[in-house]
Write a structure and sequence with these properties.
Blueprint (H helix, E strand, L loop, with lengths): L1 H17 L4 H20 L6 H17 L14
Helix pairs in contact: 1-2, 1-3
Length: about 80
């Protein structure tokens, strides 16, 4: 189930970033459509900290590839 959730999250993230929305609306769409999928499954699926860090790393990588995130921005350890 974890694999299904993460692949669907990445798919939604890429679809949003390929759209012609402006920056503010892209971030808002990511929060409402992509991250909501992870939040919904958070109460059901037991995520380990390393798995969440891996998802965060791939999210930052995808955002950087699409120009929505600067590659030299600070990586915070909030998990």
């Amino acid at each position: 189930m974890k694999n299904k959730v993460t692949t669907e999250y990445k798919r939604r993230l890429r679809l949003i970033l390929k759209s012609k929305l402006n920056g503010k609306n892209k971030i808002q769409a990511i929060h409402t459509w992509a991250v909501a999928l992870l939040r919904y499954g958070a109460g059901i699926i037991n995520w380990k900290a390393t798995e969440l860090k891996k998802i965060d790393r791939t999210t930052r990588k995808i955002l950087t590839m699409h120009g929505a995130f600067h590659p030299n921005s600070e990586m915070t350890d909030y998990i």
